[in-house]
């Protein structure tokens, strides 16, 4: 989380790991980041509340439709369903981080580790499922279509994505704890502070952005080129979808990973020596990470444009709900002692 990243930049060490011969001359100035924490207390709860409400509504609809209404699923449907579950689980951690930004961590060390791990698992798995969707769309357009439906390979891929994301959250389970200021932050062993912190940062950048971006870029580029060459098909719709998916991914994820990369380089080489610059870096990581999180709210909007089937299922659900509401209204309006039949209302339509 952004707040935890910038707080950990204060380099808090456990007392029993510092010996009496340590050279303290390298820490000439202590950078007090009270302004950063004040900004986080206002910005993060407000943004997380908006993201939670929007994302919960959109992704819940996706899960409900794919889980209960759409029985015949393709591989893309399975990936989208898993992606929506990952987005929901990620969004469910946001209230905890909002409270942490304002009041500190009040749920204890175990919940600190678990919540941090859940955040990482679902953020990373969401990026991987986006890559899986791009691969499946590439195969659907460029190769012979398969009508076998969802099989063991698709379920195995989903299982591997979840397992890989769980493995990547091990550092959160090991190093996250509640410090003396009641904040849920990562605390690394003193002798491994720089190497571990930088390695985890770079690994998260590669797994959570670089690899999915390369896969999506290559697959969607080939898919778009294939669509352009296809005769007698309507190309504008699918091409707009591909372009929108890629642009949204770049706009939401690239700024956060650029700042995160700069932060990792600073951890290794200590390039930022000015306190004001360090504060600006901390604010930048908060803002860009929040934008990256908002991708989980935009995913349901992208699903609607990925094909007509999803829109058709939304219309079916809306029509069922409209019919149910009409029946409820008619039953409420008919007096118990009345023998007059009411006229049926018009069919619900969108």
UniProtKB/TrEMBL annotation:
The chain crosses the membrane at residues 46-69, 78-97, 117-135, 156-178, 198-221, 241-259. InterPro entries: ACKR4, CCR1-9-like, Chemokine_rcpt, GPCR_Rhodpsn, GPCR_Rhodpsn_7TM. It is found in: Cell membrane. SUPFAM superfamilies: Family A G protein-coupled receptor-like (SSF81321). GO terms for cellular component: external side of plasma membrane. Residues 58-303 form the G-protein coupled receptors family 1 profile domain. This is Atypical chemokine receptor 4. One of its GO terms (molecular function) is C-C chemokine binding. Belongs to the G-protein coupled receptor 1 family. It holds the Pfam family 7tm_1. It comes from Phyllostomus discolor (pale spear-nosed bat). GO terms for biological process: calcium-mediated signaling; cell chemotaxis; immune response; positive regulation of cytosolic calcium ion concentration. It is a multi-pass membrane protein. Keywords: Cell membrane, G-protein coupled receptor, Glycoprotein, Membrane, Receptor, Transducer, Transmembrane, Transmembrane helix.
